[in-house]
């Protein structure tokens, strides 16, 4: 358990007092034999660290962690050597505290205690915000290596408060993209574009918030190509018979006016218009940026070997160093 305890203390920059849980004999046999149990004290907050002795599925761990919390009266933190992306996302969304040594720490019950000491409250998040996603993708395109918060705000043309929230999210997700120097946080990454994409990809989201399947031509003005049309624009893949465009959130009211003919799923539309949650300046104004285009594709499209090949081509082109 030492590796988990040390990782928690080093990550939070706090003294962590740990000892073997002394009341294991009061727990049911399957709990005390199935877990290595320690108590951990940080900022006068005591919790229970529970490391499964054998591989266990999330359903079983969820139930047993709940039982231990009820029986001990302590918040219970799962200590895992590794976890699948799906498992981590479910634990985050369900508020299950966990630590994956050297990778990620999620202990939301410490938030109040840390804020009471004047420290920054670590946010409890289940998925990345679009602002943070835009920051990360911009860092990839522009090859950021070391930027202050102010420099990042200027690069993104947003407020310092927005970037502060983005940095908080990166810290909460335990992504190795921040360094603290004299109480000042900076964005840092020196391993290249491809390595950064591979590191953050599990946390990124589909940037499309709404989609309209029109049965008639709609004037989209200077809208950029989006979705599959953008993928085809950046590769040798032939586009669908119907084009896909991407517009900003400001166009939503016009598109949802109610007088336009919409086509249900399963029927071929005349065109598709997607509402994009953010816009990233890229060196090609004809289409949305390629990484957002990839993220906007549904899993079914990505499973197509032709699309898979096109995505590989695009990544090779835009992630080279």
What does this structure look like?
There is one protein chain. The chain has 321 residues and is of the alpha+beta class. It folds into three domains: 115 residues; 74 residues, Orthogonal Bundle (Arc Repressor Mutant, subunit A); 111 residues, no CATH class. The chain contains 14 helices and 13 strands. The strands form three sheets. The protein has a six-stranded mixed beta sheet, sandwiched between helices. Strands 10-13-12-11 form a four-stranded mixed beta sheet. A three-stranded antiparallel beta sheet has the order 7-9-8. α3 links the parallel β3 and β4.
Question: Strands, helices and their partners?
Answer:
Blueprint: H1 2-12, E1 17-20, H2 29-34, E2 35-42, E3 45-52, H3 58-72, E4 75-80, H4 85-94, E5 98-100, E6 104-106, H5 111-116, H6 130-142, E7 146-148, H7 149-156, H8 160-172, E8 178-181, E9 184-188, H9 193-200, E10 208-214, E11 224-225, H10 227-233, E12 244-247, H11 252-255, E13 271-276, H12 290-296, H13 299-302, H14 305-318
Parallel strand pairs: 3-4, 4-5, 12-13
Antiparallel strand pairs: 1-2, 2-3, 5-6, 7-9, 8-9, 10-13, 11-12
Helix pairs in contact: 6-9, 7-8, 10-12
From the alpha-carbon coordinates, what is the Rg to the nearest angstrom?
23 Å
Question: What is the number of E strands?
Answer: 13
Question: Can you write the helix and strand succession as a string?
Answer: HEHEEHEHEEHHEHHEEHEEHEHEHHH
Task: Count up the domains.
Answer: 3
Q: Which ranges are low-confidence, i.e. pLDDT below 50, for 5 or more consecutive residues?
A: 112-119
Q: Please state the structural category.
A: alpha+beta
Could you report the average pLDDT, rounded to the nearest whole number? 86
Helix content: 25-40%
């Amino acid at each position: 358990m030492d590796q988990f305890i040390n990782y928690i203390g080093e990550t939070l920059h706090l003294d962590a007092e740990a000892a073997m849980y002394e009341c294991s004999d009061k727990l049911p046999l399957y709990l005390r034999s199935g877990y290595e149990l320690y108590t951990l004290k940080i900022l006068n907050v005591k919790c229970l660290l529970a490391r499964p002795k054998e591989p266990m599925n999330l359903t079983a761990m969820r139930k047993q962690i709940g039982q231990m919390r009820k029986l001990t009266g302590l918040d219970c933190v799962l200590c895992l050597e590794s976890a699948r992306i799906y498992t981590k996302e479910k634990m985050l969304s369900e508020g299950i505290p966990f630590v994956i040594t050297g990778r990620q720490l999620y202990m939301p019950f410490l938030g109040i205690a840390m804020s009471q000491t004047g420290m920054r409250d670590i946010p409890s998040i289940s998925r990345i915000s679009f602002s943070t996603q835009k920051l990360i993708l911009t860092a990839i395109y522009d090859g950021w290596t070391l930027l202050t918060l102010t420099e990042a705000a200027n690069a993104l043309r947003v407020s310092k408060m927005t970037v502060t929230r983005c940095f908080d999210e990166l810290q909460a997700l335990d992504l190795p993209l921040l360094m603290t120097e004299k109480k000042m946080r900076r964005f840092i990454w020196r391993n290249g574009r491809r390595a950064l994409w591979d590191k953050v990809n599990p946390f990124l989201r589909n940037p499309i918030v709404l989609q309209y399947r029109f049965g008639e031509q709609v004037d989209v003005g200077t809208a950029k190509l989006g979705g599959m049309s953008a993928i085809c624009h950046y590769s040798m893949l032939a586009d669908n018979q119907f084009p896909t465009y991407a517009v900003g959130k400001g166009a939503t009211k016009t598109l949802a006016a109610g007088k336009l003919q919409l086509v249900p799923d399963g029927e071929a539309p005349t065109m598709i218009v997607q509402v994009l949650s953010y816009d990233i300046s890229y060196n090609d104004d004809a289409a949305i940026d390629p990484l957002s285009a990839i993220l906007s594709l549904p899993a079914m499209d990505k499973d197509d070997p032709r699309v898979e090949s096109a995505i590989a081509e695009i990544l090779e082109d835009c992630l080279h160093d």
